[in-house]
Design brief:
The chain has about 210 residues and is an alpha+beta fold. About 30% of the residues lie in helices and about 15% in strands. Among the domains are: about 90 residues, ProQ/FinO domain (Fertility Inhibition Protein O, Chain: A, Domain 1, Orthogonal Bundle); about 55 residues, SH3 type barrels (Roll). Strand 1 and strand 2 form a beta hairpin. The radius of gyration is 22 Å and the shape is globular.
């Protein structure tokens, strides 16, 4: 009897996906492509009889893949989304592109902050030297145009018992809701896929319909 060892981490699973679906999951240093909305359901169906990976592991690996800098860079307005076979479909909306770029910016800022902290801990203590720096005229801070707030009066908080798989909802993330699709309804939480391709698990009270 042949014993098949299960994958133990996301890196192994992503490498497996690039082998199984090379037209969809791009490996190495090549530019990634935006995944179609609902690609997780297709992936789970195709790998239903694959003993080495579970749906939970697939979600984790898919989340890591779609949160990588290489992937977030490719989610731009107008870019064509692809399915598991590399067939192009809908275009990335401006809203999804903005969300991806915001996630990329926050991820980079966090990584650079951690690197700076690590470098400062390694650097030997040195006596501070006074350096004469010519004074520069302070520039007035640039005003950043605020995004128009979405009118939430037309929405209501989601009821966990009334939610359905494939239902369109909005997730309350940050200051503005983000469009998403319900992919699985758990006992106390709901698994949803953002239009950027990222899969997250939230409470029903964080969803509006």
């Amino acid at each position: 009897m042949e014993i098949t060892e299960k994958f133990t981490n996301n890196k192994q699973i992503i490498a497996f996906l690039t082998e199984q679906f090379p037209a969809c999951f791009i490996a190495g240093s090549e530019s990634a492509k935006p995944l179609k909305i609902g690609v997780f359901q297709e992936l789970a169906a195709r790998l239903e009889n694959e003993p080495r990976v579970s749906k939970t592991q697939l979600r984790g690996a898919l989340r890591q893949y779609t949160m990588s800098w290489r992937y977030l860079h490719c989610v731009k307005a107008g870019a064509k989304r692809i399915d598991l076979d590399g067939v192009e479909g809908d275009e990335v909306s401006q809203e999804h592109a903005d969300h991806a770029q915001l996630s990329l910016k926050e991820s980079k800022e966090k990584a650079f902050a951690n690197k700076k902290k690590t470098d400062s801990n390694k650097a030997p203590a040195r006596a501070a030297k006074k350096v004469s720096v010519p004074s520069r005229k302070k520039e007035a801070p640039k005003k950043v145009a605020k995004k128009p707030e979405i009118d939430l009066s037309q929405y209501k908080e989601a009821n966990h018992n009334e939610l359905k798989v494939a239902q369109s909802v909005k997730v309350l993330l940050g200051k503005s809701p983000v469009s998403a699709t319900v992919v699985e309804i758990l006992k106390e939480e709901v698994q949803v896929q953002l239009d950027s391709g990222m899969v997250v698990k939230v409470k029903a009270k964080h969803l509006i319909v």
